[in-house]
């Protein structure tokens, strides 16, 4: 099948929509501590969904993974574990900064590292990006993406500067700009490791294709390994929090000890809605996985400049994340000029995806 970069852009938009939407169901979880709902959803994100869809859409999944050299598999899991630190703190960023500003800071750093480091390490940066018109256009798209991220982040900073502390916490209950930015910087750098894991898994895609898997799905076995690494990191941290906070009972309906310390008599009346919580976590976790389900489909359509998929992915996430920010009324008190700045940033990001798609299409000629 001949690569179709414009179709790849569409797949990346779908992946961005899934990523920008995954945290929304978590907002409906009631009376569960963060570590409980995060690892519950994570089991779907990093274990159930990757193996289920890879088993359904690829040929001889276990046979293919059995042929993977130990070093290749180890690198995929290692980068996944490092990415896990970014994914772990990504959720904290949403708590402290909200969807719009949190995504802008995290994904800006993640875009630069995740897009440029793989071709640099592989030694073909100049050949792919500097020596051809298509590569230079992709670089232009990356620059436009970063400009769009900066504009969205600037709008978020201006919005937050105009709000009182009370107003900020009315929109984002745990708002903390300093704490949020510190967590976001760490998260953005570590989150780029997912791109490194995908690059390390290129030989696995070849093995899957040789087994008869269609070109749209050869990346799915790689996700099984990279996401397993993320599961390890998140399980260790959430396990520590669960042991420290004694929150494991919440899986069976018990409320947090902190919630009922002063009001033990009402504990029975405030038990968590278990079925709803489990369903919301399953929805959130599966939505998170679908960002990379569509990512691998989009990357398969980008040809020799497939690493630019990371930029497309990041831009798409911020586009839809900003839309969610408006839907959740995070911008309701922003001045008209600030809102116009947001729309300008989103417009730049949309333009960037078109430019990158065009650059990739030139590369197919």
From TrEMBL:
Instruction: List membrane-spanning regions.
Output: 6-24, 36-56, 68-89, 96-117, 137-157, 177-200, 220-243, 275-295, 307-328, 340-359
Keyword Endoplasmic reticulum, does the record have it? Answer: no
UniProt key word Transport = yes
Q: Which GO terms describe its molecular function?
A: rhamnose transmembrane transporter activity; symporter activity
Q: Name one GO cellular component term.
A: membrane
Which key words are in the record? Cell inner membrane, Cell membrane, Membrane, Sugar transport, Symport, Transmembrane, Transmembrane helix, Transport
Q: What is this protein called?
A: L-rhamnose/proton symporter RhaT
Provide the species name: Caulobacter radicis
